Description:
Layout (H helix, E strand, L loop, with lengths): L3 E3 L4 E2 L2 E4 L2 H9 L7 E6 L4 E14 L2 E14 L6 E5 L4 H13 L2 E7 L16 H15 L6 E5 L2 H12 L4 E5 L15 E5 L7 H9 L3 E3 L8 H19 L1
Parallel strand pairs: 1-4, 7-8, 7-11, 8-9, 10-11, 10-12
Antiparallel strand pairs: 2-3, 3-6, 4-5, 5-6
Helix pairs in contact: 2-3
Amino acid sequence: MNRILFEKSEITDGVAEFSGERAAHIVEVLNSEVGDTVKTGELDGKIGTGVVKKIESVESKDGKSYVIRLELSHTGESLQPWADLILAPPRPRVFKRLLPQLAAMGVGDIVLVGAKKVEKAFWGATVLKEENYRPLLVDGLMQSGTTIVPRLELRRNFVRFIREELDSLYPDSTRIVAHPYDAEPIGEPPQGRLLIAIGPEGGWTGEEVELLKSKGFRCRSLGGRILRTDTATIALLAKLNNETAEGK
């Protein structure tokens, strides 16, 4: 955790009192004491610092835990998302591993689409419940030190989403599709907020790629090797983020 984050509901008159993993991290990893300052922030809000006002050690049958009170001052602006993602989701186990990384890397919207090769059983996965996926996203934000929680949307009908919703939701986006074949070189670094489409483990079908191209998506490749969805997603985000930063 590089920044301790709080829900708005956890903060009362500029003070947060809490226990659990965040409290243990402050005591056992940061070695903080009363009077020390730690980096903090409010989810979907500002960043700043918190001064430790109380550390209470609590013994239980499960071992030692802590209750901490922080006096917060949040006046700084968090880094904002720089890309949105259209993702044909992998298996739930892989998806859970991927979510914190997407939040940490600055993804704004995550639109899960029902591409042809997506396993139908995925749509019943428990990770799609907000109470299950939100903590994973928050974990990634605390790693990166940012506060803006990615928005997760489900669109099981991929074709309908691309044809009927895409342009109204992302009218000004620079559009890129991850596809290892027929990739065209893009000379200049991409500008503006990106919209990146990444296919399922088995890849996009030819028809899906053509539909994306018809909507202005340009193909990008990471080379001749076929990668797993989580590997390809992180690799492409890292590459594009670096190109975008260099182009500024």
